[in-house]
């Protein structure tokens, strides 16, 4: 699952040096990716030999799938039923098809264990299959049916030696025709109650063997119209704004696996190595993931689901097109979760969410400029969202707040004309509905990729106790 690799990182750093300085917005920062071997470990424990496989298989006549109980119960085998060739890459315990989570602190040190030096920046990083040293994660329980599997796992912290994570992952797997549907639930129980900033997750990651080198998806602005797909050629880890909510890896003949997550627009792709004929224990591999931003609470519980579609690019699109379309307008009501919203340099009152987001409306670190409350990525036509209604209670001396947005080709929010509107607020702590009329506002046009709430420059609220309680953000009056 994990992070493409030292080879790709070396090429990326070389390109950066040659091109002097490249500006990367924090919203689209590409986290470092993990190497598959241990090149000089500075006295740290050596990598272990992989534990022998203990695979369970299910099949439905179109798909054959296997999980490995000696690899955290991750998917380690996948093929069309007519083939005996495994598509999944298993060169180490960071590949496979699996879940990997990310949170602070950075670096993450516990029980006297230091992270492997090159991956100190990964922080708290539970990996379903195991750790950097090839120690396998522990399967707590499992069940197997004819076309279903269930597995419960205590993952390991990737950069540490044999350190169980303070969370439990559960995966429900079901075969349906040419598809694999997976539901994941994870529960966190960390003694460290600090609320760390949201990070992108690998939910899931998919690593297929060298023949599946073609990285394909749709990132255009006419989704669900059968417009031509894009084939990505960058080998390095690259963010994708996938407007049809899928991405895939395919072979020379155009067959492979598509990854679909409902309402998710943020994906990544990469290819590592240089072989297009390699097998499951070779280095070369294609990589895609779905990578939502997620604030992981010390006591949080979270769920997501995804579907793997086996077959041609047409097969993948036919399935995706048959599913409910993503929302075309905002309809966020914060009843029992954050609805994918997250914060930069801000915190809220934590888990569980009870009918509102109770957000500290001031910078956690006053030395940093950024301060933002952000939505997940979206795909809205501005003409379909002439007004936005924000049901909120501000407790602050500020008299205005800022509503910002960004367009598909923008890697971050920009404080430029045509990307924000300031609106008056009343800071007495009482709930009100703020109507933001976007009709005729310069820049509110075409496709909208993301929205946020920010303090108005010059009115940043530094006073203690300043809060934003947010109940809903909708396209119609609540």
From TrEMBL:
Residues 31-52 are annotated as: Disordered. This is Uncharacterized protein. It comes from Fibrisoma limi BUZ 3. It comes from the Bacteria.
């Amino acid at each position: 699952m994990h992070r493409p690799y030292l080879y790709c990182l070396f090429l990326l750093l070389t390109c950066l040096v040659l091109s002097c300085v490249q500006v990367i917005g924090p919203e689209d920062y590409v986290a470092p990716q993990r190497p598959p071997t241990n090149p000089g470990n500075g006295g740290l424990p050596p990598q272990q030999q992989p534990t022998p496989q203990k695979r369970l298989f299910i099949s439905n006549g179109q798909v054959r799938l296997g999980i490995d109980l000696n690899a955290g119960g991750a998917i380690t085998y996948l093929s069309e039923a007519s083939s005996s060739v495994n598509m999944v890459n298993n060169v180490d315990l960071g590949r496979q098809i699996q879940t990997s989570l990310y949170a602070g602190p950075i670096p993450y040190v516990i029980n006297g264990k230091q992270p492997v030096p090159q991956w100190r920046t990964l922080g708290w990083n539970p990996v379903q299959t195991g750790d950097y040293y090839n120690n396998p994660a522990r399967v707590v329980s499992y069940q197997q049916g004819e076309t279903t599997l269930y597995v419960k796992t205590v993952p390991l912290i990737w950069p540490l030696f044999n350190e169980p994570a303070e969370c439990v992952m559960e995966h429900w797997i079901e075969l349906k025709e040419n598809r694999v549907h997976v539901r994941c639930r994870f529960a966190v129980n960390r003694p460290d109650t600090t609320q760390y900033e949201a990070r992108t997750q690998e939910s899931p990651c998919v690593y297929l063997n060298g023949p599946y080198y073609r990285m394909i998806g749709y990132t255009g602005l006419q989704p669900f119209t059968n417009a031509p797909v894009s084939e990505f050629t960058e080998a390095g880890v690259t963010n994708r704004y996938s407007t049809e909510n899928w991405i895939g890896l395919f072979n020379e003949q155009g067959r492979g696996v598509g990854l679909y997550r409902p309402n998710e627009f943020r994906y990544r792709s990469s290819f590592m190595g240089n072989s297009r004929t390699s097998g499951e224990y070779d280095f070369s591999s294609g990589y895609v993931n779905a990578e939502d931003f997620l604030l992981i609470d010390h006591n949080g519980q979270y769920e997501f689901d995804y579907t793997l579609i086996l077959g041609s690019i047409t097969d993948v699109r036919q399935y995706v097109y048959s599913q409910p379309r993503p929302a075309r307008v905002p309809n966020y009501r914060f009843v029992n979760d954050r609805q994918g919203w997250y914060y930069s340099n801000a915190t809220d009152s934590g888990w569980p969410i009870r009918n509102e987001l109770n957000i500290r409306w001031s910078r956690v670190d006053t030395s940093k400029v950024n301060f933002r409350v952000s939505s997940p990525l979206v795909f809205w036509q501005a003409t379909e969202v002439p007004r936005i209604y924000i049901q909120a209670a501000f407790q602050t001396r500020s008299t205005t707040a800022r509503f910002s947005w960004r367009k598909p080709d923008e890697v971050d929010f920009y404080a430029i004309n045509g990307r924000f509107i300031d609106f008056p607020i009343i800071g007495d702590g009482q709930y009100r509905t703020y109507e933001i009329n976007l009709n005729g506002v310069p820049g509110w046009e075409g496709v909208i990729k993301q929205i946020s709430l920010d303090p108005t420059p010059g009115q940043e609220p530094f006073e203690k106790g300043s809060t934003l309680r947010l109940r809903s953000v909708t396209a119609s009056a609540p």
